[in-house]
Structures are given as C-alpha cells and as structure tokens.
Write a structure and sequence with these properties.
Length: 251
C-alpha cells in the first residue's frame, strides 16, 4: 500500500517539473514561463504608451539626434534671416524705383518750365510795346513810336544783360576771330591782318560762351601785304627756333 503511494507521488513530481535532457524538445509551457522571466536591461527598447493609446518605441539618447535638432534650429534661423533680407531688398528696390520716377518727373517739369523766369521778365516788355503802340496811334506820330521802341529795346537789353548775363559784343573794326565772327564776304585791302569791316548781324555771348557769332564782312591783306606778312611770320618763326648758341654768336 505505502509502496503504491510513493510511486504515485514520484510520478506527480516528475510530471510537475519535467526535465529537459540534452537533445530533448522543451515543453511549450516551460518555454513560455522562461521567456516571461527574462530581465530587460536599461539599454534595451522601452515601450511607451502615448495619449492616443498607440505604443511608440523610444530609442536611447544618441549624439546624432541632438546634432539633428541643432541643424534644424539653424536651418529655421537661416530661413528667417533670408526672409528678412529679401523683404529689406524688395523695400530698397521699391524706394529706388520711386526715386527714379520722381527724378524723371522733376526733370520733365524742369525742362517744361525752364524758361518760366525769362518769360516772366519778358511780359512787362510786351506791356511796354502795347502802351507805346497805343500812344503812337493816338498821337499819329512816327517819331514818338520810334522813341518808344528804342526805349523798350534799351530796357530789354539791360534786363537780359544784368539778370541773365546776355551780352552783345561789337565786331566792327575788331580783328577777325573765327570763334566770334562768321565772314560772309571778304575783300583784299591795305591791312596787316584780317579786320571786320562791317557787321550785318550782331553776335551775343552768355558768360564766356558764344551763343551766336556775328555775321560780318572782312577786309583781308592784299597780295603784296600777304607776302610781307608771310615773310615776317617766317622770320619770326626762324628767330624763335634758333638755338641759344646761335643767339650767342649773333650777339
């Protein structure tokens, strides 16, 4: 009886804790229990549950992750800087375009009204002409008309000279200057150099610039005078070209 009990107890112990001899197939329940008892180290994968209930795997901290975050921050800063510079450039470009338009408009207005001051000074002259003509018609006197026109012409000339530096230069009797005179006729005469004999149309200058050359008739040296003048000029040129030694020998 006792022997039978001992055999049953031994059989139950062997069944409760099976032995996996070398080369034998492990029991499924024993394999599941062994996997459940495995320890997870601190460097293994950690499973976290988010707010939405989805489990996400978080890896351990890595230097590449921090470097990536730093690069992203730097890219964002560079994008903001580029956007700011682009805005400044567009604002500067708009200011330059507006400045050019304003300068062009002011230039056009200046060209359009450049003679406004001169015309304003000429209006009183027109008034003087009107008064002179009306007075001459009432008096039926040509002498009075001539005097009035002469007076108006003198006033106009003085105004242009004093306010605008417009001067009339006299040419008759002056040496001929191609920069100031335009010879319409030329005649040989007993003169040493070309001389303005008659002035057909006066010349005018503004400051140091000739606005209009005078139309004149010129007297030029005759054939004999021309040869004499040429010989004198050649002699003067030879004297100027002489070397200091030649001049010393002549002395």
């Amino acid at each position: 009886m006792s022997k039978h009990k001992n055999d049953s107890k031994s059989h139950e112990e062997n069944t409760a804790s099976p032995v996996n001899p070398e080369g034998a197939t492990p029991h499924p329940e024993a394999a599941a229990k062994g996997a459940a008892n495995l320890d997870v180290s601190s460097e293994s994968l950690v499973v976290e549950t988010g707010a939405d209930g989805v489990q996400a795997a978080s890896e351990p901290s890595n230097p590449l992750v921090s470097e990536l975050e730093s690069a992203r921050d730097e890219i964002a800063a560079l994008r903001a800087e580029v956007s700011e510079l682009n805005e400044k450039y567009l604002r500067k470009l708009a200011d330059e375009v507006n400045f050019r338009k304003r300068m062009l408009r002011e230039k056009e207005e200046a060209q359009k009204y450049a003679v406004a001051s001169l015309l304003g000074d000429l209006i009183p002259v027109l008034d003087d002409f009107d008064r002179g003509i009306a007075s001459a018609e009432g008096a039926k006197s040509h002498e009075q008309l001539i005097e009035g026109v002469t007076l108006i012409r003198k006033q106009l000339s003085q105004m242009l000279e004093n306010k605008y530096a417009l001067r009339r230069f006299e040419s008759k009797g002056a040496p001929f200057d191609p920069n100031r005179h335009e010879a319409l006729f030329a005649e040989p005469s007993d003169v040493e150099e070309p001389i303005v004999a008659e002035e057909y149309l006066p010349g005018y200058s503004l400051h140091d610039r000739i606005l209009r050359t005078a139309k004149v008739r010129v007297k030029i040296p005759g054939p004999g005078k021309s040869a004499t003048v040429q010989e004198d000029a050649a002699g003067q040129s030879a004297a100027n070209d002489a070397t200091p030694a030649d001049k010393a020998g002549q002395a």
